[in-house]
Amino acid sequence: MRRLRTLVAILVVGAVAGAGWAYAQRHSGAARPLSGADIAEIQQLHARYNQGWDFRDVDLYLSAYTDDAVFTTGAGEAYTGKNAIPAVWWNSAVA
Predict the structure, then answer these.
(1) How far apart are CA 29 and CA 62, in angstroms?
(2) Could you tell me the residue ranges of all domains in the chain?
(3) Distance separating the N- and C-terminal Cα atoms of the chain
(4) Which residues neighbour 67 within 8 Å (Cβ) at sequence distance 6 or greater?
(5) Do residues 68 and 81 make contact, with C-beta atoms less than 8 angstroms apart?
(6) How much is the pLDDT for 45?
(7) What pLDDT is stored for residue 91 in this prediction?
(8) Model's pTM, two decimal places?
(9) Alpha-carbon distance 42 to 40, whole Å?
(10) Which of 8, 30, 47, 52 falls between 20 and 30 A from 63, CA-CA?
(11) In whole angstroms, what is the distance from residue 76 CA to residue 12 CA?
């Protein structure tokens, strides 16, 4: 009798877990796959961001951000807008 209860409990848990997984896969919010143009645009944005950082070019670096971007430091400080990134942070981060 105890084995039967254990087996039923395992089957119920497995069925609930399987149903939850299937539901999550259908409703994951995933939109359409990225096109080649999307991927190229992301790569160009990433390159511009990194080149600005590597060359210490503030204008090039900030061109990777939108005007309403939120920049959060590792310490949890958040700056809203690309103009809010303080020059003090930039100078200390790249020195």
Answers:
(1) 30
(2) 49-83
(3) 71
(4) 81, 82, 83
(5) yes
(6) 92
(7) 55
(8) 0.54
(9) 5
(10) 30
(11) 43
87, pLDDT greater than 60 = no
What is the percentage of the chain residues whose pLDDT exceeds 90? 16
Separation in Å, CA 51 to CA 1, 45, 62, 81: 69, 10, 11, 20
Do residues 71 and 85 make contact, with C-beta atoms less than 8 angstroms apart?
A: yes
Report CA Rg, the chain: 24
- Residue 89 pLDDT > 60, yes or no? no
Q: Which CA distances in Å does 16 have to 5, 20, 24, 25?
A: 16, 6, 12, 14
Q: In a 3-state reduction of DSSP, which class is residue 29?
A: coil
Amino acid at 40: A
The pair of three-digit structure tokens given for residue 19, joined into one six-digit string? 């149903």
